[in-house]
Specification:
- By secondary structure, the chain is α+β, with helices and mostly antiparallel strands.
- The protein has one domain: Cyclic phosphodiesterase (Cyclic Phosphodiesterase, Chain: A, Alpha-Beta Complex), CATH 3.90.1140.10.
- The protein contains four helices and eight strands; from the N terminus they run βαβαββαβαβββ.
- The mean pLDDT is 92.
């Protein structure tokens, strides 16, 4: 993952503290950006510039008015094998994260970089230089993994600053 540039933004879901604490145990062991950002599921990164947020907020909430609070279960692992190999938890959410991602793409396509890769909701727990390390970590986590469940009550709009990510605003779901 590239290091964010100052003033880049993102739209994310953060699990509650008790779930983040559990996930952080693995992230510390597997060096998963633990100093860069707390455990989260990215909906969009980069997202709209901070100076456009206030003017866009109403449009965003209107697009999301039919999306109610929803439950996420984290009980399966996934991997990305690329230059950096990633071990992640798969959020089971009935497609809500993908729906939100798609709606934001329609509203803000000029700010969202086109990608050949499809959106895959995930919560990173490990980053590895070698595939062998990734496979060993996956086997370890699979033995220890207990299902984690939480309710998504809000979406978080965050801005990257020199010292890390700052929560700028939240969108509450009904």
């Amino acid at each position: 993952m590239k290091k964010p540039r100052k003033n880049e933004t993102g739209l994310v879901v953060m699990p509650p503290p008790e779930i983040r604490n559990e996930i952080n145990m693995w992230r510390r062991v597997f060096k998963a950006y633990d100093s860069m950002i707390t455990p989260h599921i990215t909906i969009l990164y980069p997202f709209i510039p901070e100076d456009r947020w206030n003017g866009s907020r109403r449009m965003i909430t209107n697009q999301l008015k039919d999306i109610r609070q929803f439950e996420i279960k984290l009980r399966e692992l996934g991997t990305f094998v690329r230059d950096e190999s990633i071990l992640w938890l798969k959020p089971e959410d009935g497609g809500k994260l993908t729906k939100i991602n798609s709606r934001m793409h329609v509203l803000f396509s000029e700010y969202i970089a086109a990608s050949a890769l499809a959106y895959v909701p995930h919560l990173t727990i490990g980053v590895f230089d070698r595939t062998e390390e990734l496979l060993k970590a996956r086997a370890t986590v699979r033995k220890q993994l207990k299902p984690l469940t939480f309710t998504v009550e809000r979406l978080i709009y965050a801005v990257y600053e020199d010292e890390g990510w700052r929560i700028h605003d939240t969108i509450m779901l009904k």
